[in-house]
Amino acid sequence: WNNAFSFDERKNKKLFVPSLKKINDFSKIKLLKNSVEKVTFEEYDFNTVMQTCYGLENLYEIDWEWKKIYLVDNHNHVFYFWYLARKQGIISDNALLYHIDEHADTRDPWRYLMKADSQDLQKVFEYTNFFLNVGNYIIPAEKEGLIWETVQIRSENALENYRAWKFSNLEKQERSIILNLDLDFFEPELDFIDYNLKKQAILDIAQKADFITVSTSPYFINQQKALEVFRDIFTL
User: Fold this and answer.
1) Per-residue pLDDT of the chain (236 residues; tens, 9 = 90+)
2) CA distances to 186, 188, 230 from 225, in Å
3) Biggest alpha carbon distance in the chain?
4) How many whole angstroms separate alpha carbon 78 and alpha carbon 63?
5) Share of the chain residues as helix, strand and coil, in percent rounded to the nearest 5
6) Fewer CB within 10 Å, N or C, the chain?
7) Under 8 Å CB-to-CB from 217, ≥6 apart: which residues?
8) Phi/psi zone of residue 6: left (φ > 0), alpha (ψ -120 to 50 degrees), beta?
9) Phi then psi dihedrals of residue 76, to 5 deg
């Protein structure tokens, strides 16, 4: 459904979804080279200029401090990996989601995932790719019961609020904790928010989380910049 954006106006009618690769070294993370066959996201910007974007060569599974990070380009792909983590017993239903992002990603899709279908990873995969897009994948996980509550951290004020209450609240959580980070939180227009404030909040949640998903969001931030930030925060 990422392909539905400006579909009728675009010359290119396909988007590329990378395969998954397990790595243990950040140097193995590669970006796609510009290729008509491997456009990751395409949409008109606010100036009505078509933006053709290229993302990751692969989706990546990375072991970090005895837990898993899944690094994706288009953010809706994390939906599948949340359900994979549940299947593997890494997280359980009614998890607490910390969503650190420039955007809320809480639009409604036109169809929800049924509880029975959520147990079938092939159906979850199909739902992720054919019914979800970068802006509507959180609400379906809440409706189905995987996510109990979503804490939105999208501003300097939200970061300060988190810092104020984290020690008295996060430690007491008996639920599974998911960190869901979009690296567009570091795009230049948000540089007025202190970099280290962002980094320390992310690391604090990451160290307490059971599972971590990270998106490079090709349309919203330069991909080289996104990977620089990712490597700096999650240094192996």
Assistant:
1) 777 777 678 777 788 899 999 999 999 999 998 776 798 988 888 778 878 899 999 999 999 999 999 999 999 999 999 999 999 999 999 999 999 999 999 999 989 999 999 999 999 999 999 999 999 999 999 999 999 999 999 999 999 888 776 645 555 567 899 999 999 999 999 999 999 999 999 999 999 999 999 999 999 999 999 999 999 999 86
2) 8, 10, 9
3) 53
4) 16
5) 40, 20, 40
6) C
7) 73, 74, 75, 134, 182, 183, 184, 226
8) left
9) -65, -20
How far apart CA 208 and CA 177 sit, in angstroms, is: 7
Q: Both tokens of residue 168?
A: 């008295």
b/e sequence 117-143, b meaning 16+ C-beta within 10 Å: ebeeeeebeebbbebbbbbbbbbbbbe
Judge residue 23's burial from the number of C-beta atoms within 10 Å of its C-beta, 0-12 exposed, 13-18 middle, 19 or more buried. middle
- C-alpha to C-alpha distance for 125 and 129, rounded to whole angstroms: 6
Strand order in the sheet with 177-182: 20-23, 59-64, 67-72, 211-215, 177-182, 95-100, 147-153
The token pair at 98 is: 């910390």
Copy the structure tokens of residue 90. 């890494």
Helix (H, G, I), strand (E, B) or coil at 142: helix
